[in-house]
What does this fold into?
Amino acid sequence: MIVGFEAFASKPTIVVAYIDVTYGSVCIKYLYYNSDCKAEIIHAEFDEVPFAKSQVIDFLDREIAKKEEELAESKRKKAYFLNQFATSFAHVFK
It folds into this structure.
């Protein structure tokens, strides 16, 4: 999907977003297509795409859940620190 045109005077660039799907990951990547780029761009029909929308959404949902759990763990650690060590450090923070 073309997501931008950068009208640089010396090297106009087309910004293309694409999805790189492997066994364990889904990444949205960007190709900056200009006169220095070795890649080729072709038109692809949606029935030629090697993944399903539901696969990408499922993977991204799992990634979001993992990051939310990491955030919750960090919040628990902060709360533990504040609750358990606040009295020990009370004299330092006066």
Helices lie at 53-85. The mean pLDDT is 84. The first helix runs from residue 53 to 85. The chain is about 35% helix and 25% strand.
